[in-house]
Amino acid sequence: MAHEVRESRLLIVGLGLIGGSLAAALRDAGFEGEVLACDPDADEIARGVEMGLIERGDTHLAMLLDGVSMIVLAVPVLAMREVLETLAEQGVADDPSVVITDVGSTKGVIREAAEAAFGRLPVNLVLGHPIAGSEKSGVAASDPHLYAQHKVILTPMATTNRRAVARVRSLWQATGAEVLEMEVERHDQVLARTSHLPHLLAFSLVDTLARQDERLEIFRYAAGGFRDFTRIAGSDPVMWRDIFTANRQAVLAALDDFEAGLARLRQAVSDGDADAMLSTFDRASHARHYFDSLLNQSSYQAEYQMQEQTTLCYRAGPGGDVRGRIRVPGDKSISHRAIMLGALAEGVTEVSGFLEGEDSLATLQAFREMGVAIEGPHQGRVTIHGVGLHGLQAPSGPLYVGNAGTAMRLFAGLLAGQAFDTELTGDVSLTKRPMGRVADPLREMGAVIETAEGGRPPLKLRGGQALKGITYDMPMASAQVKSCLLLAGLYAEGETRVREPAPTRDHTERMLGGFGYRVEREGDTCWLEGGGKLTASPIDVPSDISSATFFLVAAAITPGADLVLEHVGVNPTRIGVINILRLMGADLRLENAREVGGEPVADLHIRHAPLKGIDIPVDQVPLAIDEFPALFVAAANAEGVTRLRDAAELRVKESDRLQAMADGFAVLGIEHRLYDDGIDIIGHGGEGPSYGGGRVDSLGDHRIAMSFAVAALRASESITIDDCANVATSFPGFIELARRVGLTIEAQQEDA
Ligand code: S3P
């Protein structure tokens, strides 16, 4: 067996389901010693022998003690005292080679009983509790798999012999259980809340309903909810009477908390207070999902991805219209930052327009895993109960941020200054992306960070480091690196200054300002001083100009198009796409311009007009960095050559976007020349189809997938696009919205 159990003779006292299942599991695992059992019921012993679980047994304990190496007490909690007294009388505790352990559901009362029986706590007594059970009872119901992948909690004292603990540990590990250690008091409190209270509620609910006159009727119609909630009310009544008697105090404390919560909910129901109900249910529902992901030892997102055995393809039909008035989802960059700063602020931050895409949801979930209460999202509304800059708690495992480079890099900055260690992991695409660009300057600030080879994820950050401000000259124009350093700067001593070689999106600086944190700028350098605080502030997230881009290009290339995109963020550091399309001749107007929560917003009105090829101004590259895949499609429909240079950053996005677009263009027959840092695209203008159709690969990159879907508007045949599931990272509902304005797209699952 994997975990060898060296006990020569094991004695189980109380041969019910728990004791019988232990014997069965050990037999299954190849245990070669003898198993004896003591039970007041001679029939149980006879059945145990018949089932091959035990060699022999007796109704009198004293008859079985000779030569045993380990005694497992599996009698009900309140029967323990008598058994312990018999063991004391027989002098068992005086023999250091004999280990005594138990399986009782409460530990305090058993420790007391042992002290009373032996006059002290024997060093070879190891109290324990397997967290497994069933509504069935009796040895006949024994299940050799009852403990597999379940937890067993041991509660040794400081005086307990560690060799005795190791022997009990081996015993349980052989059954397939995971063994943990905990203090007695903590065990009793935890179990009162997680096991004893729910049993009490289940017993009470069934009893209350069963007493009502129409009980037959009620049970006949009781559906899944009743069944799920009350399964445990079928458990052994004597055992549970003992547990509630033994763990009275901890159970009462848990019950008080529960009653207070129930009273609040009762009030909400009686007042018809929909918000109060929703926020309670919402918190509970998210907590329940989180609990599932903990049980499955995977993150929210990883669990979602593991279910994906198939790949999602888009089939975009040639031609179509682009007309109407739509609003695309919230800005991804601002959504990430809203959650981050809201969590670190003091007070409650209300966010509206939040992007419910997988990337920003991963950020939200990561903060929940660090103890931040977050309600929602519900139709873009999120309520964050900020914990202050020093209020995050250590997560129980690695933080999984999916496909989100922004999350990983910004988190690296804000986690570098925490008191606890963290690990950041992501999906296959993110695992290939460079993180040295943040790890290196963070190390200069005093952070301790480990990366995988070549500066790739996962990132392991050591907590408890004293950071100091630095002046950093960024080698590339990156808003993520800038934001990472500013967030680390909040925790650093002195000033953190970042110089950017070209302007990059400034959402972090603006939002910090909105939360009352002073960020200064002079020319190409911005800086802040560590040690301040953030104060909660409402955030209205505008629509994402990067998502709007697919529809801007769709309208720009489609004869007869006339489209309005409402409430789009037009921050000057993000409007490269507007500038570039206008230079190409697009008929694009900003209407109803206004400022919302510190960010400029406008409705974008675009009508079809013939496009011409241009040399893309180098200063526009960082301002349109995410929009190039779609802009390449505009270029393929323009008259003449469009040249892009100084855009090597495109090679390290969610995919190598220069290569991915060039490969797709080759399939569709679009003329182009690829360079290390750019591309030339040769378009022929006109109003007929500009290229053919075919099957292209998005390489799991959301923006490549959506760009080719838009390209189909001017293709002669349909375009099939592989690996499109990641569109959900930034643009949930893309297909529905695209269809609404007149594109022909279908999604289909294919085997991976
Ligand atoms: C982002 C910055 C840009 C951009 C990314 C989002 C941000 O990345 O491409 O989609 O939210 O700060 P870089 O900082 O790597 O240029």
List keywords for this structure.
752 residues; alpha/beta; 6-phosphogluconate dehydrogenase C-terminal fold; six-stranded parallel beta sheet; 4 domains; Rossmann fold; binds shikimate-3-phosphate; UDP-n-acetylglucosamine1-carboxyvinyl-transferase, Chain
How are the SSEs ordered, and which strands pair?
Layout: E1 9-13, H1 17-28, E2 34-38, H2 42-50, E3 56-58, E4 70-73, H3 80-89, E5 99-102, H4 108-118, E6 125-126, E7 128-130, E8 151-154, H5 162-174, E9 178-181, H6 184-211, H7 215-221, H8 224-230, H9 237-246, H10 248-271, H11 274-295, H12 300-306, E10 310-316, E11 323-326, H13 332-344, E12 346-352, H14 358-369, E13 373-378, E14 381-387, E15 399-400, H15 405-416, E16 422-425, H16 428-431, H17 436-444, E17 448-452, E18 456-462, E19 471-473, H18 479-489, E20 495-499, H19 507-514, E21 520-522, E22 525-529, E23 539-540, H20 545-557, E24 562-569, H21 576-583, E25 587-596, E26 599-607, H22 628-636, E27 639-644, H23 657-668, E28 671-675, E29 678-684, E30 694-697, H24 702-711, E31 719-722, H25 727-730, H26 734-741, E32 745-751
Parallel strand pairs: 1-2, 1-4, 2-3, 4-5, 5-6, 8-9, 11-24, 12-23, 15-16, 19-20, 30-31
Antiparallel strand pairs: 7-8, 10-31, 10-32, 12-14, 13-14, 16-18, 17-18, 20-22, 21-22, 24-26, 25-26, 27-29, 28-29
Helix pairs in contact: 3-4, 6-10, 13-14, 13-19, 15-18, 17-18, 20-22, 20-24, 22-24
Bound molecules: shikimate-3-phosphate.
